[in-house]
Amino acid sequence: MGIFFFPIIFLAVSIKASDKSLSYSVNQSIREILYIPVDPELRYRAKIFIDMFLQRFARGIGAVVAFIFIYLQIKVRYISLVSLIFIIIWITVSLKINKEYIDVIKHNIQRKWKRAEKSVSETVDLDYTKLVFDTLESRKKSEILYAMHVFDLIRQDKLTPELERIISQKKEEAKASSFDALFGAEGGSWAHTAEDMESKEDLKTNIDEVMSLKSYQELMTEYTDKVIEKSNETEIEKMEVAKAIGLMNPDSPLVDKLIPLIKDGSPEISRYAIESAAKLKKKEFIPLLIEKIQNPIISEDSTAALTKFGKTAFPYLEKSLNDPDSSLPIKKGIIKVFSRESSQQACDVLMKYLKKNDVELEDDIIDSLDKIRSENPDLFVDVRFIKAYTLKKIKRLSQLAVIYSELNESEKKELSRSLRDIFKLLGLVYPHDDMMKAYQNLKSGTKNSMAYAVELLDNTLSKELRDRLLPIIEQVLP
Question: Where are the domains of the chain?
Answer without folding.
Answer: 22-108, 298-381, 383-478
